[in-house]
């Protein structure tokens, strides 16, 4: 029998994961979001209960997927008392999908264990379309027996799984994934911006990039958006700044200098300061093309 699924965080990623699981025959039984209308709309769409509080989620689900914004939001939903997922959590498994600091993933897992619950971290290296289609790339940390127990569910969400080790390990890997992705995005924006200033044909330049050492996955996903100034959000500049910050903090704790990552974070913080933090990360090109910023 398939597990009943609870969703905490019904934004673009959480909602599309819920839709895909519903399509695959899972009972998405309960949905919670800090924005009531968001939860109401998704619950109505999927025939689920909209939870007014977090204990209602744990009372009505066997597995709870959490997709929240940052460390503070994660600590809030797992606080020791009051409106918390830890209330009545005995026997529940939490699969925490947000990009957070490793320390918070470990902190939450320890609190859940004391409450009698299991925890996995499932870091996602994909975007909205992949969430909807069940083709996420997931990096999963946690107890290997808990991972094995829930592998069928995780396979349903993903095109590939990578077990990374204990809780906290997937967060470290994800931080480095996004650190490099963000640097690649900022570097591509600079290259295209300079090419434009030099009067080059940018379509030609992108084709040359694709056949040389300048190629990257970001070239495939972001170059057209940078040229067309189409920054519909799939992964926001604000999230890019947050995730680069996580990586930079890990580097500092390890005693490693990461000047390129620090410069990249500063670029995304400029976008935030300009009121453009909710645009896609490709909007970093607005800072690198003449007469755009």
UniProtKB/TrEMBL annotation:
An example molecular function term from Gene Ontology annotations: NAD binding
Domain 6-phosphogluconate dehydrogenase NADP-binding: 4-163
Domain of life from the UniProt record: Bacteria
Keyword Oxidoreductase: yes
Domain 3-hydroxyisobutyrate dehydrogenase-like NAD-binding span(s) in chain numbering: 168-286
Record protein name field: NAD(P)-dependent oxidoreductase
SUPFAM superfamilies, per the entry: 6-phosphogluconate dehydrogenase C-terminal domain-like, NAD(P)-binding Rossmann-fold domains
A Pfam cross-reference name: NAD_binding_2
Keywords: NAD, Oxidoreductase
Species for this entry: Persicirhabdus sediminis
Active site: 174
Recorded coiled-coil stretches: none
């Amino acid at each position: 029998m398939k597990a009943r699924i609870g969703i905490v965080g019904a934004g673009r990623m959480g909602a599309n994961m819920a839709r895909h699981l519903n399509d695959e025959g899972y009972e998405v039984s309960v949905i919670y979001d800090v924005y009531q209308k968001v939860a109401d709309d998704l619950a109505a769409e999927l025939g689920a209960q909209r939870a007014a509080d977090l204990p209602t989620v744990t009372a009505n689900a066997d597995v709870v997927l959490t997709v929240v914004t940052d460390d503070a939001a994660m600590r809030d939903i797992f606080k020791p008392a009051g409106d918390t997922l830890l209330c009545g959590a005995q026997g529940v498994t939490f699969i925490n999908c947000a990009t957070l600091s490793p320390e918070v993933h470990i902190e939450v897992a320890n609190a859940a264990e004391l409450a009698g619950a299991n925890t996995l971290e499932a870091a996602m290296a994909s975007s909205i379309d992949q969430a909807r289609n069940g083709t996420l790339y997931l990096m999963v940390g946690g107890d290997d027996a808990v991972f094995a127990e829930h592998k069928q569910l995780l396979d349903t969400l993903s095109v590939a799984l990578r077990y990374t080790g204990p809780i906290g390990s997937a967060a470290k890997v994800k931080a480095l994934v996004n650190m490099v992705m963000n640097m690649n995005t900022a570097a591509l924006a600079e290259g295209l911006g300079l090419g434009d200033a030099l009067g080059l044909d940018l379509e030609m330049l992108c084709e040359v990039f694709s056949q040389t050492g300048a190629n990257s996955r970001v070239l495939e996903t972001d170059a057209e958006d940078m040229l067309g100034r189409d920054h519909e959000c799939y992964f926001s500049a604000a999230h890019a700044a947050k995730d680069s910050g996580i990586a930079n903090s890990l580097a500092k704790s390890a005693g490693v200098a990461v000047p390129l990552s620090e410069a990249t974070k500063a670029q995304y913080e400029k976008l935030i300061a300009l009121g453009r933090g909710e645009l896609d990360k490709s909007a970093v090109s607005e800072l690198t093309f003449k007469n755009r910023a």
